[in-house]
Amino acid sequence: MQVTVEIPDDMAKRLTQAGQDPARAALEAVAIEGYRSGALSAYQTRRLLGFETRYELDGFLKAHNVWEHAYSLEDLEQDRQTLQQLESEGRLQG
């Protein structure tokens, strides 16, 4: 499927790094969001971006600060509640 998106020139320049193809930048943004949201698997993301190996995808994701099973705010809140519970039960030594 081919998708065409109209972006004003001044915004395209702001959304891309110097010399980067705006179409590639848009494709990468879709791939990143698809992977982060779980809509795309690692394999599907790799195919979408045209990478031949998982190693290439891992490097791309790392460069864009995308981590599998990222520690979310919900995870932090759950850990905070667990620590409070352990403290109140006297089971946490510190």
The overall pLDDT, averaged over residues, is 88
Please state the CA-atom Rg, rounded to the nearest Å. Answer: 20 Å
Strand-residue proportion: under 5%
Secondary-structure element pattern, one letter each: HHHHH
Q: Determine the N-to-C terminus distance.
A: 58 Å
**Main β-sheet description:** none
Q: How many strands?
A: 0
Give a nutshell description of this structure:
By secondary structure, the chain is mostly helical.
Written account of the structure:
There is one protein chain. The chain is mainly α. It has a domain at about 10-70. It contains five helices and no strands. The chain has helices at about 10-15, 20-35, 40-50, 55-65, 75-90. The termini are far apart.
